[in-house]
Every structure is written in structure tokens, then in C-alpha cells.
Amino acid sequence: MIPVASILSPLENILRSVLVWLHQTAGLSWAWSIVGLTILVRMALVPLMVRQIHSMQSLQLHAPEMKAIQQKWKHDRQRQNEELMKFYKENKINPAASCLPIVAQLPVFFSLYLVLKHFEKDTLPHYHGSIEWLNLVKITDHVSHGWGPLLLVIYVVSQLSSSWFMTTTMQGAQRWMMLVLPVAFVPFLLRFPTGLMLYWLTTNLWTTGQGVITRRMVPKPAPPPKRSSRTPPAEQAVPAGGTAPAAKTGGGGAQPSAAQGNGRKPVAGPPRRVKRKRGGGGGRR
After folding, report:
1. Which pTM does this prediction carry?
2. What number of other Cβ atoms are within 10 A of residue 224's Cβ?
3. How far apart are CA 95 and CA 92, in angstroms?
4. 261 pLDDT band (50/70/90 cuts)?
5. How does DSSP classify residue 276?
6. Which structural domain, as residue segments, surrounds residue 167?
7. Considering only CA atoms, which of 233, 259, 264, 235 is closest in space to residue 247?
8. 46-101, pLDDT tens digit by residue?
9. Can you tell me the mean pLDDT for 224-248?
10. What pLDDT, on a 0 to 100 scale, did the predictor assign at position 4?
11. What are the pLDDT digits (tens) for 119-144?
12. Is 280 part of any domain?
């Protein structure tokens, strides 16, 4: 089995070269070089970000139709998935496009981890400079050291904010899972280098700003017309003139209605007049 480090060696060398270039040419400290590296990576992912925005727009625009499909086939999960896949294909929707920026960053994340893991042995002896960030943490120390836990708290808050904006079009359970994952990863992050946490923190801040812009760019679907208890149904609406027009009768007498001919109960009409008998003056004897 080929180790992951061997696969990521070319990307690891590229990231190390970019960090050295930012440190020597731009005059940044090693910590701020990581911030600059993060910005460059995010700029390279702009095309994927544009596809993510378009995917969010399509999902939000067709949300009522997809919800109708889910309600129609809610008792048949397989048929529901088939109909949704067919709907995605017909409308050229890629629901996985919103995850592309995250997937593309994973190799960068692990490669930077390898760079920082061997930083003091492979890079720092050849290039001098401070490895501290704001005189609080060292980029090669574990997050659990010094002020690292404070940086971890800031990371969790920024991760929740970025996940909130990135999952606006996801279903309820899927969205809550994405929001819970940052907290679930905290025990594992304690053993990561602080420089890696600085990279992810900068990424989250970028994603949060990107989410604010995205929410303004995505058009909101038009709300359905409001109905009240006094609004009559369309098929029973009464004309503006008042009462409904009476049925025409042919000849001099009244014609039997269709309801009477079919054996249905006739509609109640005005009270029938009863003629009184002449004479007598009183009741029956």
C-alpha cells in the first residue's frame, strides 16, 4: 500500500516553496506566511466557489419542486432518489458542487500538516525567522500548549459560522451533522500543530465572508400568495355583481332541475306559501 505521505510529497514541496517565498520575498514571519498561503489557496479555488454559488442558486430556485417530489414518494425511498436524480439531470443541477471547495482543500490541509511536522528539521535551519504568532503561540507546537486552546475556541466559532453559511441549502439532519462535526473534531485537533490551526482559522474567516456575499447574490424565492379565512376558493368565487345568476327556465312553468331528475336532494329555496280554506273560521271539528 502506498503511504499517503508519498502521494502528497509533490504538493508538500510546493507548499514549502510558497512559504519560503512569502517569508523571504514578502518579508512575512512564518506565521503570517501561513496566512498568506491560505489566501493564495482560496484565490485558486475561486472557480470552484463560483460553481458552488451557482449550485446554491439552482437548489434554492427548485426547492419547492424537489420538496414536492419528496412528499410524493415519501413512502418509497428508492423511487424518491430515482426521481430526484432524474430531476437533477433534467435541470442540470449538481448537488455535490457545494462540497467541492472542502474536498479540494483536504490535500492541502494534510500536505501543510506534513510541512509543519518536519518544519524545524527541514526548513527552519536553512531560513531564519520567528515561528511565533502574535507572541502567543508557535506554529510548530501542538494546539494544547500555551494559548493554543484559545485559538481552538476561535476556530470552533469560525467553523460553526462558515458551516452555517455553506449549508443553507442542505436538509435539516444533514445540516445539523455539518454543524456538529467541528465540535466533534476538537479532541483530535489538540495534537495538530498550531500553524495548521492558523491555516484552518483563516480559511473559515474567508468562508464566512464568502457566505455573506453568497447570501446576497442568491435570489430569494418569491413567497406564495397569502390567503385568509374570507378568501373563497377559486372554483366557488362569487362574481362582483353580488349573487350568482339564476338558471333560466323555458316556457311559463318551472322546469325540474337536473338534481331532481337524478334523484339528488334539491337545493333549499324560499318557503312555500300555504293557501287557507275559506269559511269555517276555526279548526276542524
Report:
1. 0.67
2. 7
3. 10
4. very low
5. P
6. 4-217
7. 259
8. 888 778 777 777 777 888 888 899 899 989 889 999 999 999 888 888 877 767 77
9. 49
10. 64
11. 988 898 888 888 998 888 899 999 98
12. no
Please report the DSSP string for 203-272 in residue order.
HHHHHHHHHHHHHHHSPPPPPPPP--TTPPPGGGPPPTTSSPPPPP--SSSPPPPHHHHTTPPPPP-SPP
Distance between CA 215 and CA 220 in Å, rounded?
9
Question: Is residue 101 one of the residues assigned to a domain?
Answer: yes
One-letter amino acid of 68: A
- Domain assignment present for residue 151? The answer is yes
For 99-178, strand residue ranges (E) read: 132-133, 137-138
d(CA 131, CA 30): 5
- Distance separating alpha carbons of residues 2 and 16, to the nearest angstrom: 22
Report how far residue 231's alpha carbon sits from residue 55's, in angstroms, rounded to the nearest whole number.
37
Q: In whole angstroms, give the CA distance from residue 141 to residue 127.
A: 18
How far apart, in whole angstroms, are the C-alpha atoms of residue 124 and residue 110?
20
Q: Is residue 281 part of a domain?
A: no
Count of the separate structural domains present in the chain:
1
Nearest CA to 115 out of 4, 38, 195, 21 is that of 195
